[in-house]
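Usage example:
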Amino acid sequence: MRVSAKADYAVRAAAELAAAQAEEAPVKGERLAEAQEIPLQFLEHILLELKHHGIVRARRGAKGGYWLARPADEVTVAEIVRAVEGPIAHVQSTPPEDIEYRGNAEHLQAVWIAVRASLRNVLEEVTLADLVSGELPTVVGELTSAPDAWVAR
Amino acid sequence: MRVSAKADYAVRAAAELAAAQAEEAPVKGERLAEAQEIPLQFLEHILLELKHHGIVRARRGAKGGYWLARPADEVTVAEIVRAVEGPIAHVQSTPPEDIEYRGNAEHLQAVWIAVRASLRNVLEEVTLADLVSGELPTVVGELTSAPDAWVAR
DNA sequence: GCACTCCTGACCAAGGAGGTCAGGAAAGTC
DNA sequence: GACTTTCCTGACCTCCTTGGTCAGGAGTGC
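Running the assembly step on the lines above writes:
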């Protein structure tokens, strides 16, 4: 139940691309790496994955760089996380709807389904445009407004 | 963003212990392993961790076994997951409230906080008693009642 | 032709996942 | 006191992931 460096980096780089979308020109990997303090060569692998998933496009050579394949308000954080981390909230590498529990654990399946649904409620609502503008969806506002959301357990 | 085998096993074994709480007698590891089809020796390590976290108690020898340290309605799934997997929803192994993002990723922190809060909303509400009885909290009911909660993406 | 930038695969060290194995240490029974 | 039972613990194992680095190849633009 943790967020990998890769997913974190991917979302941050994508946010930079979203912000640069107005410029109408590709952004170099180097600039993304510097803006977000991400190791360049590692970032290039991540951007390649995003490209393979159709989230990002790229051109080589002088004047080359990366850009978002779609408008920033049509790309969700969930998509990016899935592109680099794979499916969200799988249990033992299988989707929760495919698991069959026995005995007293029978209702655990519903719990894992609920876990996944609650993650989706956040990650699929937030777009890159939201992230850059800071105008996050109301669901995020509700969840972060409780003071104990900001403290460890 | 996945659930490990260890966490899944831990919750399932704990559910068995919760169901056996009425018996007033310890449950052997072997019985737990058979009931939930978990490799016995692996399960023993997990139960040991749960014991170290004060969730489970144990006695050795004939008539020995494991039992819950507290009533089943006072033990949440969140506790069990934390005991075996560590803190929930850390980013790059640091808690989201400690991360400082730069530039266009500034508001990403709020998103990760929301992710953690939404996970807690589920995992801290469900107790072992809920799990065994099948009477899950309303938040779970709401999340699992949407049909697309049960399909892959 | 040359500089620039992405693209790709190989590699690497450390650690986690998901176990197994072997033995020791309490607790109960006879 | 011996014996059985059951938990307790550490060592070990294989495979995979994480978080990178390195080296070179392949388009693109001037």
